Amino acid sequence: MSKVHCDEEHFEVLMPQFASYCETIDSIYRLKTDADDELIKIYQTIENNLIQTKLFSHDDIISVLLVALRFNNRFVMSYYSIYQQIIDAQKNQIFNKQQVSFFNNIKSDFDSLIDQDLKQLSEAILSDDIELFISYTQRVGFDINKQFSNKLFPSSANSYSLIELCCYYGAVGCFKFLRSELDEEISPACLQLSFLSGKPDIMNECLKYQTPDEICMEYAIASHNIDFISFLMNEYDLSINVEFCGKYNNLHAFLIYLDQTNDINECFIYSPIFRIPSLCEYFLSKNVKINVKGYKDNRKALHNAALCNCPKIMELLLTHNAKVNIKSKNKKTPLHYAAQKNNLESVIYLIDHGAKIDSKAYFAETPLHYAALKNCLETVKVLISLGANINAKTVNNITAISLAAQNNNKEIVEILITNGAYIESKDYKGKTALLYASEKGDKDLIDFLISHGANHSSHSCTKWKSGYCKFFNFIWCRYQH
C-alpha cells in the first residue's frame, strides 16, 4: 500500500477537536481512585462526552472498561463501580450477556488473583507492604518459583512470577527485596509490565538488564502514558503500532503517529475504530482511496467500522463508494466482522445495503458460522430471520450447529434445529453435533440433541477412541428403557 504524504501538521489541527474525547478515555485507562465521589464524576464525564454525543453506546463503554481493567486491575472494583452506574442508569436496556456475566463474576475473579491460601502475599504486593511480604517469604514451604495466572491479568495466556507481579502492581519495596535478598532475575516481562505501573525505580532497574520491545510499546499505549510512548520512540527507535492505538482507544497516540508518518491511508483504515465520523471525514478530505487495504491483513476502513458497530461511519463510507462486500486477507467481508462481534446494528445495516448474507471467507465460513463460533445468539437469530443458509458448510464440512455444540451453547443449537438445521451433519472427521457435545460432557445438550432426533446408535466403537465408545454405550443403554 502506498503512503499519501501531506505537509499539514495533523496533530495541531485534530487534537484540539478531540481533546475532551482523549481526556475522557484517558480517565478510564489511567483510573487511580476508589473514592465514590470521584468515580461518580468519571461516570458522568463518560456519559456527557462519549455516550450523549452518540460516539459510544453503553455496551461500547462496558467493553472499554473490560479492556482497560486488565492493564490496571489494582482498581478492578473501581471499574466495577462505573459499570454498575451504567447498569443502574439504564434499567430497561438489554446489555451484552457475556460482558454482564464477566462483571457479575468480577468480585470472585479479583479475590482469586492470587490463590486464597496466599491472600497475605496478595495483600502485601497490592499495598507494597514490605514487612508483610518479608514475613510471608520466611514461611516454611515458600516457593519463590511459583507462577500466578488469572484472566484479569494483561495476558490471560501468561503466568507471572512474584517479581513480575511486583512490576505490574508497582510494588517498589517488594521488588527491591526480591532483587537484593533473593537475587531474583529481571525478565523481559518485568520491563514490559513496568510500563503499566509506571514506577521509575522499577523501570530504571529493569532497563539495566532488558531492552524495550514491541510489547513495551503496546503496554505504553495501553497505559495511555504519552511520556512513555515518546521515550520508547526517541530512545529506542520503537514505532507506534497504529493497530494498538485503536485496540486501546488511544487517539492521542494515533494522532502522534499520523503527525510523524503522514501515512494518511493507514490511519484512515483504522480511524473508524475511534467511532468519530468527523475523524473519518478528515481523511476523506485528503483524497484517500476509499477501499485502500491495510498493511497487515488487508482490512479496509469498512471492515473496521463493522467491527466497532458504527453504522454512521459505515453510511459515510458507503456514500463515498466503499464496497459493501469487500474482503480482507482472510476473505472476510464487513458482515463477517459484524457477525463475530454480535454487532446487530451493523449486521442489519450491511444486509440492508447489499451485503451478501452467505458470503464465504477463506475456509468458506459464512457470517452465520462466525456468529455461532463466537456465541453471538442475537446475531444468529437475525441472520436466520434474514435468510442465511442454516446448513452452509466450510471446506471441512463444518456447519453452524457443530460449532454451537462445540461451545456447549444449547440456546444456539435449539434455534438452529428449530429453523431446520440438519442434526446429523458430519464434518471432515465424521463428527456430528452429538459427538461434539459428548466430548464436552454436556449432559443437558446431549439430552436435548437426542430428544430432537440425533442418532445415538450410529457410532461404531471401531471408529472412535475407547472413551467415546463407552460414552455412546452409556447413551445406548440409557435410551433403550
Automatic annotation (TrEMBL):
SMART domains: ANK. Residues 184-257 form the DUF3447 domain. SUPFAM superfamilies: Ankyrin repeat, Pseudo ankyrin repeat-like. InterPro entries: Ankyrin_rpt, Ankyrin_rpt-contain_sf, DUF3447. ANK repeats lie at residues 297-329, 330-362, 363-395, 396-428, 429-461. Pfam families: Ank_2, DUF3447. Keywords: ANK repeat. PROSITE patterns: ANK_REP_REGION, ANK_REPEAT. It comes from the Eukaryota. This is DUF3447 domain-containing protein.
